[in-house]
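Allow me, if you will, to draw on your knowledge of protein folds for a short while. The matter concerns a single protein, recorded as an amino acid sequence and a row of backbone structure tokens. Kindly check, if you would, that the fold set down in the tokens agrees with what the sequence suggests. You will find the record immediately after this paragraph.
***
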Amino acid sequence: MTESTFWSQIAKKAKKQQRPFFTMAPMEAVSNTVFRQVIAKASAPDTFFSEFVYAKGITDKTTKFPVDGRLFIDPREQKKPVVQLWGDVASDFASGAEFLKSHGFSAVDINTGCPDKTVIKNHGGTYLIRNPEKIDDIVAATKQSNLAVSIKTRLGYSKVDEFNSWIPKLLSQQTDLLTVHLRTKMEMSKVPAHYEVIDDLIKMRDEIAPQTLLQINGDIPDYQAGLKLAQEHPGLDGIMIGRGVFANPFAFEQNQKKHSLNELLSLLRMQLDLFDDFATHYDVPRFPSLKRFFKIYARPELGAIDLRNEMMQAKSTDEVRQILDDFQK
């Protein structure tokens, strides 16, 4: 499969099954090789996105935002993720994409939607919504690699109606895929996603870039909810799920069923083992970064509040394993 057919192949396969394609969102300190494998074990999406990768950091090891393990692929991981790059210097995207191609990656995503203050301060993410003149050069530079190129964004920076000018600007780039998080930067995730504009986005896509696939993101908890949205809005190609995996690691399961606490804790044990393996290659992430995941597995509705609280006091993966052993005696 050539890079240029990456997204079309994914869309074609999903269309044969009369459904949209599903992806897991790029999430910092979450969408790494460890957690991607955990979700793949539970129920895999059609493809994954990586953590945020600073474009300049790929070829310049002196930057303050090093790549570290963000591009590490565990040999057990079946598919390489779509790598999401951030920054605002076109030449950094060109060199970064060339590096990715030379290392076997097939697709790259341009981050114009991250609302994080540090990213914005360093001219990435939603900074680009307020500096749209940079987009042409960034996309053109990224396309030089002949990788599949996509863009992820938000509706606007401060106001929802900014999408009326911002989205056409992005569609005019004629990328393979456009993913829209249905909120503004200022809204973060504090308000419901604006599903009311989905049909407007589809119309814009059809008029400006009919060959560009359209994917939406925001408040979509699982496969069934995503499928329903796609059925209600014909023309949507893809559904991206982000925070939904924190409520349910089986979010991409097509035939939903109840999962026992033991099943969930088995996934946690898998994550602990993969985390330790990952740590042999890189000094990051540190153990405390694992604690955000405990709520995924030790669910209150399954009577695991005390278990979760105890694990939160642990200081190592071995301590967590011992706590699990004692709990599951």
In short: Residues 3-247 form a domain with the TIM Barrel fold (CATH 3.20.20.70). The longest strand covers residues 148-156.
